[in-house]
Amino acid sequence: MQRSEVTKADGTWVGVSLDVEERRRPGLCVLNAGARLLISQLSRPVLLAVVGEQLQGVDFWRTDAYRPCVPPLRADAGRALAGSRERWAHRFAQYLVDAPDSPLHDGRWLLSVECPLSRWDHAEVSHAEHWRSMLVGGHPDGGIDWFHHAHSWEVLPLRPMPDADDSRVKAYRKQAREGMLPPVLLWWVSGLDCHLILDGHARLAAAIAESVEPPVLQLHRTVPRDDLTARIEEAVSYYEDELARFSRLRAVHGPTVPDGAAATGPQLVRLLHDLNTAEQPTWFWPLPGGADQWRRTAREVTGNHDWPRG
């Protein structure tokens, strides 16, 4: 596994890139049968989901089988890393690589501080109000709303969120007040258009209880290394062609025509950054047995409840 830093053109740190090999299928896997999805962890059903016919959202049933792929974080680790998301990212990256039940599989991944949940301007409301509104409620069943919450602006816990007076939450609330709270680890799943909490349910609850912005690290697939090289070459070639075009225009019309660098240079920088960090669709694997197997699994985990309705 190759690990490398990802930065912006100005040197601002963005995240850690992971090139994963010899891991054809992950331990935390998304299986599908048409509009029906099943997330399993080492063959344990974790989440069943059905995409609505009108594509306005997803009905889900969450089991109690999910186990975090990150080991419990000790308080002394929080003090040692001093709230640095960069240092935490490297530690989480190693946890994800080492864990047999993480979502990592062959390809290139990004563990990034750039997350739409944090970028969105919510200055009109408190941090607590904003993050409460992003949390998907309901246990064991509920819904992901694509109509009011588009563009992945929702967070689905993979187990029930603890209360503010939970012992783990109380311990993290002190770290939240001191600015040393370890990040919440989110996994963006394109088929749900939603972020799943891989680790940090209690930390997010602590941040909400203290009404502070929780540090977040987002895990997602990104452009594979070979494809990235080809796309960068295409982008640079386009940039060079544009400069040549402006040069020809200047030769005909004189120096009043700009040389093109002011327009095409920043465009190239943005494109290269996007290519290096862009979210790629989550890989799904076909569910053996298809829709019939999904229904059998649904009956088993729901105890023959009338779900999904309709």
Globally, the shape reads globular
Helix percent reads: 25-40%
Rg, nearest Å: 22 Å
Q: Give me the side-by-side strand order of the main sheet.
A: 1-2-7-12-10-11-9
Task: Please provide a written account of the structure.
The chain is α+β, with helices and mostly antiparallel strands and 310 residues long. It is built from 9 helices and 13 strands. Helix 4 packs antiparallel against helix 6 (201-210), helix 5 (167-177) packs across helix 6 (201-210) and helix 7 (225-253) runs antiparallel to helix 8 (261-277). The strands form 2 sheets. Strands 1-2-7-12-10-11-9 form a 7-stranded mixed β-sheet, sandwiched between helices. Strands 8-6-5-4-3-13 form a 6-stranded mixed β-sheet, covered by helices on one side. The protein is globular, with a radius of gyration of 22 Å. The mean pLDDT is 89. A hairpin with a 5-residue loop joins strand 5 (44-51) and strand 6 (57-62).
Supply database-style keywords.
310 residues, alpha+beta, seven-stranded mixed β-sheet, six-stranded mixed β-sheet, 36% helix, 24% strand
List the helices and strands and how they pair.
Elements (H helix, E strand, L loop, with lengths): L1 E6 L5 E8 L7 E6 L2 E6 L2 E8 L5 E6 L12 H7 L3 H14 L8 E6 L3 H4 L7 H8 L6 E5 L9 E3 L9 H11 L6 E6 L4 E6 L1 H10 L5 E6 L3 H29 L7 H17 L7 E2 L3 H13 L8
Parallel strand pairs: 3-13, 9-11, 10-12
Antiparallel strand pairs: 1-2, 2-7, 3-4, 4-5, 5-6, 6-8, 7-12, 10-11
Helix pairs in contact: 4-6, 5-6, 7-8
